[in-house]
Amino acid sequence: MDDPWMECMDHCIAVTQEAGKMIREALQKDISIKQKSSPVDLVTETDQKVENLIISSIREKYPTHSFIGEESVAAGAPSILTDDPTWIIDPIDGTTNFVHRFPFVSVSIGFTVNKEIEFGIVYSCIEDKMYTARKGKGAFCNGVPIKVSGQKDISQSLVLTEMGFKPDPKIFRAMMANMESILTIPVHGIRAPGSAAVNMCLVASGAADAYYHIGIHCWDMAGGAAIIREAGGVIMDITGGPFDLMSRRLITASSEDIAKQLAQKIQPFPCGRDDTEN
Ligand code: LIP
């Protein structure tokens, strides 16, 4: 039977390649930085240009589809997930890395229908690694199949997370306390590469065993969620419940055992949702 979304996925890969080229070219020039919600929430002209490129190219081909794009939402567009075919786009995941030319910068796109993720593409464009996953068809990096490490023992694991300044001191302390309770298990280490989508692909390809994060967005997670699942990994809510794309939090891991042990160690703190006014 024909796969109705395969053509969309092929178009997505092509436009993502173009976007990656635009990002690499921008890295050769001066980067002018603007602040969004806080002094550590950055945006550049390139984030906006890349999102426009992606959305206009997809909209031209699929005019009835819906979009949730990081920069469009920042400019006031709604971020409500409906049953429509929906493209969830982060034009530059790892804007801070981009600004510093720290080499983990990705374009992340997830495609949902009836709120289910059908495929995900993450292009780590400085490394030139194109991660792709179609539901039920496996996960790939540059066309080569990838899978999670399969590690089940948390004390043998390398864990990824992201940390940054939080204006609320209680939240800042909760974030640091979570890191302390994981480091003291002990695990082999914690790393923070700076792009949520790349982090998910690192777990999907077995370079790390888990990634957890409270406070990210659906556009950081949608592409990587497809890749993690198809690489044989697990993805769940920070509490150990089912993953919710709009919840702004997740645990991904190489095995259910590790994900559940992390869920027991992590104390959730409030982070709002993507589909409500916060
Ligand atoms: C970023 C993430 C990064 C995280 C930031 C932010 P952006 O996405 O991928 O890992 O620490 O909170 O969400 O803003 O560069 O697209």
What does this structure look like?
- The protein is globular and about 50 Å long.
- The strands form 3 sheets. Strands 3-4-5-6-7-8-9 form a 7-stranded mixed sheet, with helices on both faces. Strands 11-10-12-14-13 form a 5-stranded mixed sheet, sandwiched between helices. Strands 1-2 form a two-stranded antiparallel ribbon.
- It has 2 domains: 6-145, Fructose-1,6-Bisphosphatase, subunit A, domain 1 (Fructose-1,6-Bisphosphatase, Chain A, domain 1, 2-Layer Sandwich); 154-265, 3-Layer(aba) Sandwich (D-Maltodextrin-Binding Protein, domain 2).
- By secondary structure, the protein is of the alpha+beta class.
- It is built from 8 helices and 14 strands.
- Bound molecules: L-MYO-inositol-1-phosphate.
- L-MYO-inositol-1-phosphate (LIP) binds at residues 70, 90, 92-95, 162, 164, 194-196, 216, 220.
Say how many strands there are: 14
CATH superfamily of the largest domain: Fructose-1,6-Bisphosphatase, subunit A, domain 1
Q: What's the architecture of the largest domain in CATH terms?
A: 2-Layer Sandwich
Compute the number of structural domains. 2
Q: Please name the CATH topology of the largest domain.
A: Fructose-1,6-Bisphosphatase, Chain A, domain 1
Mean pLDDT: 96
Order of helices and strands: HEEHEHEHEEEEEEHEHEHEEH
Distance between the termini: 43 Å
Q: Hey, roughly how much beta strand do the residues contain?
A: 15-25%
* Largest beta-sheet details: 7 strands, mixed
Global structural class: alpha+beta
Principal-axes geometry comes out as: globular
Contiguous uncertain segments of 5+ residues:
none
- How helical, in percent, are the residues? 25-40%
- Order of strands in the sheet with the most strands? 3-4-5-6-7-8-9
Work out the radius of gyration.
18 Å
CATH class of the largest domain: Alpha Beta
Query: How many DSSP H or I helices?
Result: 8
List cofactors, ions and other ligands: L-MYO-inositol-1-phosphate
